[in-house]
């Protein structure tokens, strides 16, 4: 009989991308204008990882999904009211700043510390999930830093599919250039998976799942340790929204080839 899995998902909140995000300088360093007032969502790539984890856990009786989230405790609590209805999971929270300017290595160190503190964690039966990118910091290295700190050497990035066999071997499809996939087979655990978008739709809200999750989420938020995560050794001299440039020319009765040539010349200029 296949043994249960510990699936750990690293994911945090990001500002709702539908909002206007304007960078400003604050006493604590660079940040976003009215950042505390901006509505937050679970990072889209981390959300895909969470849904894939929940789907995989269904295939192994007794498997657990743990979401390890780093962010301001008040905003995490607000976010969990929605996320808790999507899939069953346990929450491990770290009360720390989270944003586009936080240092990836410092963030990874706090996430790894929180994972190591999970009671009864057995790395020989563990899969570490996360997003291959982020809608906030998008360093692309945070998950790998976490894996290295935990001693996990099998790492796959940009994964869209994971198939698990009863003997604990699994096959992953990683995105590579040219719209192709690299298929890799791993003989066992642990392993770290950086998910792309996967193939699962967003689960519908389930109030019963939400109520069950919130029984563990609220105590987890209450005892969330405070961590200091900054910008590392990076000094930001200036942050601003890229200026928009629009050059419109209206011409009539041009041949298609002439239009293409003019567009190429405009791009070169």
Commentary on this structure:
The protein has one domain: 3-Layer(aba) Sandwich (Rossmann fold). 34% of the residues are buried. It has 269 residues and is an alpha/beta fold. Strand 3 and strand 4 form a beta hairpin. It is built from six helices and twelve strands.
- What is the total tally of β strands? 12
CATH architecture: 3-Layer(aba) Sandwich
Strand order of the largest sheet: 7-6-1-8-12-9-10-11
* Amount of beta strand: 15-25%
CATH superfamily: HUPs
Low-confidence stretches: none
User: Helical proportion?
Assistant: 25-40%
The major sheet is characterized as:
8 strands, mixed
How far apart the termini lie comes to 65 Å
Number of domains: 1
Shape: globular
Number of helices: 6
């Amino acid at each position: 009989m296949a043994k249960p899995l510990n699936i750990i998902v690293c994911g945090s909140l990001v500002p709702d991308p539908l909002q206007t995000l304007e960078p400003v300088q604050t006493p604590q360093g660079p940040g976003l204008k009215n950042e505390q007032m901006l509505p937050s969502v679970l990072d889209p790539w981390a959300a895909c990882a969470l849904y894939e984890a929940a789907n995989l856990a269904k295939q192994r009786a007794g498997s657990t999904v743990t979401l390890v989230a780093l962010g301001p405790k008040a905003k995490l609590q607000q976010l969990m009211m929605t996320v808790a209805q999507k899939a069953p999971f346990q929450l491990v929270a770290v009360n720390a700043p989270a944003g586009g300017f936080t240092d990836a290595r410092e963030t990874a160190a706090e996430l790894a510390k929180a994972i190591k503190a999970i009671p009864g964690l057995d790395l020989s039966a563990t899969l570490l999930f996360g997003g291959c990118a982020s809608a906030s910091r998008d360093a692309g290295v945070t998950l790998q830093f976490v894996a290295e700190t935990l001693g996990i050497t099998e790492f796959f990035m940009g994964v869209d599919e994971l198939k698990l066999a009863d003997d604990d071997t699994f096959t992953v499809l990683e995105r590579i250039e040219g719209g192709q996939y690299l298929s890799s087979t791993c003989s066992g655990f642990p392993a770290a998976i950086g998910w792309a978008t996967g193939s699962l739709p967003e689960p519908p809200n389930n109030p019963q799942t939400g109520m069950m999750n919130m029984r563990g989420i609220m105590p987890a938020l209450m005892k969330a340790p405070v961590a200091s995560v900054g910008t590392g050794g990076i000094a930001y001299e200036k942050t601003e929204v890229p200026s928009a440039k629009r050059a419109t020319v209206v011409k009539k009765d041009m041949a298609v080839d002439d239009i293409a040539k003019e567009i190429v010349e405009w791009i070169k200029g």
